[in-house]
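A.,

Following up on our hallway conversation. Structure tokens first:
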């Protein structure tokens, strides 16, 4: 686990976890921390605030999550400082890249618009009372499931509870933003409309096309305008978004043992396996072979770990 904590051990009133896979926390009380270098988590962190508020800074911006709101903090997003109010009470889940990849890249994966909102830039969402209750119950059940050390299928149990949580979050986002149908898209400002259409095209074509020019041509706009639309909606360059989604597809293919690493490289349009290996290691820090072995090992190990007061990833 990443030992660079963004919570205090004294805040944790309940926790269970499967090490390097998923962590659940119930937190209370004040805490503040500033980091000499921006903190990048190795996990996507989901936070819902039951009482009080927490604030964190990144660059020149401050994000505040208040009572009745939920937020995700992605491993793409740095944090410079964080502060919890004295009356803070909240729930948090930290999910590994491996788990997120599993869920987002399976055969019934969530639509690309949800994936971008969930795993992209910093955001908060005000929940209805019913939505907050459902999401809080989901996290409580997940924490309980993580503590079930004797369950023969603990990985599958934890996966199922986290999938339910994501489904309820997706429903809350749908209630807030709609389902991205063409009728709804037509009313959006043009950069947002272009961005949504871009993500749909990428989802359909990323195995065959990874050039910015291809997507600009498909949308009948210039590369410069596409870059501006993507930057405005994600804070990332269009090249970074394409590279990240290409990487996600690589992960999905690597998790299929019937597909060789060379076949993955070929399907994603790399000149050779070596070029693919360099690309993958740049994103994940390990080779495709090492990743495939780690993914297999964590799924055959069904033991949950429980700690009284582990540090937050």
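Then the amino acids I'd put at each of the 313 positions:
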């Amino acid at each position: 686990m990443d030992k660079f904590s963004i919570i205090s051990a004294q805040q944790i009133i309940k926790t269970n976890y499967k090490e390097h896979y998923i962590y659940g926390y119930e937190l209370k009380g004040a805490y503040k921390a500033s980091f000499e270098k921006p903190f990048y988590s190795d996990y996507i962190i989901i936070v819902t605030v039951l009482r009080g508020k927490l604030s964190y800074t990144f660059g020149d911006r401050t994000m505040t999550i208040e009572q009745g709101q939920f937020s995700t903090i992605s491993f793409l997003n740095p944090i410079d400082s964080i502060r919890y109010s004295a009356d803070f009470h909240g729930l948090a889940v930290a999910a590994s890249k491996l788990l997120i990849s599993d869920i987002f890249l399976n055969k019934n994966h969530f639509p690309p618009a949800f994936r971008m909102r969930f795993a992209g830039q910093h955001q908060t969402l005000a929940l209805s009372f019913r939505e907050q209750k459902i999401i809080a119950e989901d996290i409580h059940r997940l924490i309980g499931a993580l503590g079930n050390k004797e369950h023969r299928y603990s990985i599958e149990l934890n996966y199922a509870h986290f999938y339910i949580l994501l489904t309820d979050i997706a429903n809350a986002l749908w209630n807030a933003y709609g389902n991205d149908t063409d009728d709804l898209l037509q009313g959006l400002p043009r950069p947002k409309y272009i961005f949504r259409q871009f993500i749909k095209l990428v989802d359909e074509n990323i195995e065959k096309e990874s050039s910015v020019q291809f997507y600009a041509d498909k949308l009948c706009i210039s590369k410069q305008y596409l870059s501006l639309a993507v930057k405005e909606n994600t804070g990332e360059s269009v090249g970074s978004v394409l590279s990240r989604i290409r990487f996600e597809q690589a992960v999905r293919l690597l998790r299929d043992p019937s597909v060789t690493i060379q076949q993955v490289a070929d399907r994603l349009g790399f000149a050779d396996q070596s070029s693919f290996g360099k690309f993958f290691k740049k994103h994940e820090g390990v080779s495709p072979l090492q990743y495939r072995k780690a993914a297999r090992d964590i799924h055959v190990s069904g033991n949950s770990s429980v700690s009284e007061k582990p540090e937050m990833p």
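The radius of gyration is 20 Å. Curious whether your intuition agrees with the design.

B.
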